[in-house]
Amino acid sequence: MSRVEMGMPALRRSGRPSLDGRPDTSELIDRFGRIAHDLRVSITEKCSLRCTYCMPEEGLPPIPRDELLTVDEIVRLVSLAARHLGVREVRFTGGEPLMRRDLEQIVAGCHKQAPDIPLSMTTNGIGLAHRARRLAAAGLRRVNVSLDTVDRAGFARLTRRDRLDSTLAGILAARDAGMAPVKVNAVLMRPTLSGAPDLLRWCLDEGCQLRFIEQMPLDADREWARTNMVTAAELVDVLSSRFTLTEAGRGDDPSAPAELWQVDGGPATVGIIASVTRNFCGSCDRTRLTADGMLRSCLFSDQEFDVRQLLRSGAADAEIADLWRGAMWNKSAGHGINADGFEPPERTMGAIGG
């Protein structure tokens, strides 16, 4: 099956998406009845780490400064999404959001314009220890910290940087600043699989919610292979060597991507996001903005719609909202990772945002 047959054309920046057949609703509905309530906003392609499953060793090509969305542009789009498009939650991603010195201004501006919308951030935690209280005061409610192992040597090999202590300090600072519970995201990789029980033990001891994620083909080095991937089933076997795990469904949110397991009888849980072997595309509720102002309906879609150009040409909110609705109306059915002939997207996760 080709990318076109899966509804995923080669990377192109389109003008106006088709609205043919779309129902008369303000929300971000697609042709399969899904409605996007969760907005992911990538604010930079820069990162302080070089994780092998995400970035090449030399980093990603820089986005010219004048092509990055400004603070005011991000605030306007978040406000528009909350007021006119039914968005109920916003998460800032990267790259690494902490690489932007104006992150506090972005958070504060969005909180002021959309005070009822929960604001969160996905981060590697490096430098967070010095900014957690300021970010919490600006309106950031929660953080998801990427941490794949608590073994220092393993962390350095995987990230190509010896910064484990900084990440751990960032997690504890976020917790102490009131952004609790802190969620920890760990990508399942074969070199760190044996250390998964140690990571779970650390998270349980520190009051963090751990979620393991199956590795997806979003690496810049294009080395992902389905046959080498660690599956959710393998992880359960490894964790079960140290803990008693009991299936607990998806908690209070049936559309949540993580399948929860009670640990040693609860109440603590560990989440497993089987994004490849048991994908959740059918209940996906996400819409995305890239750091250079492109609308994307899916991590794996190479179709983008240029909202930055609209912003800078003086377009009214109604025009931008219609473009956004059209972009989501044309969302594909799923990522197609398990389909014959699957090809990963041209832009990798570091450029799109997680």
Structural notes for this entry:
The chain is α/β, with parallel strands linked by helices. It has a single domain, classed as Aldolase class I (TIM Barrel, Alpha-Beta Barrel). It has ten helices and 15 strands. The protein has helices at 71-84, 103-113, 132-138, 152-159, 164-176, 196-206, 232-239, 307-312, 317-329, 349-352, and strands at residues 12-14, 28-29, 35-36, 38-42, 89-93, 119-123, 142-146, 183-188, 209-214, 245-247, 259-263, 269-273, 286-289, 294-296, 303-306. The strands form two sheets. Strands 1-15-14-13-4-5-6-7-8-9-12-11-10 form a 13-stranded mixed beta sheet. A two-stranded antiparallel ribbon has the order 2-3. Strand 4, helix 1 and strand 5 form a beta-alpha-beta unit. Mean pLDDT is 88; it is low at 1-11.
CATH architecture: Alpha-Beta Barrel
Quickly count the helices: 10
CATH topology: TIM Barrel
CATH class: Alpha Beta
Content of β-strand? 15-25%
Contiguous low-pLDDT stretches (5 residues minimum) are 1-11
Short synopsis of the structure:
By secondary structure, the chain is α/β, with parallel strands linked by helices.
Q: Which structural traits does this protein have?
A:
disordered N terminus, two-stranded antiparallel sheet, TIM Barrel, 13-stranded mixed beta sheet, about 350 residues
What topology emerges from the helices and strands here?
Layout: E1 12-14, E2 28-29, E3 35-36, E4 38-42, H1 71-84, E5 89-93, H2 103-113, E6 119-123, H3 132-138, E7 142-146, H4 152-159, H5 164-176, E8 183-188, H6 196-206, E9 209-214, H7 232-239, E10 245-247, E11 259-263, E12 269-273, E13 286-289, E14 294-296, E15 303-306, H8 307-312, H9 317-329, H10 349-352
Parallel strand pairs: 1-15, 4-5, 4-13, 5-6, 6-7, 7-8, 8-9, 9-12
Antiparallel strand pairs: 2-3, 10-11, 11-12, 13-14, 14-15
Helix pairs in contact: 1-2, 2-3
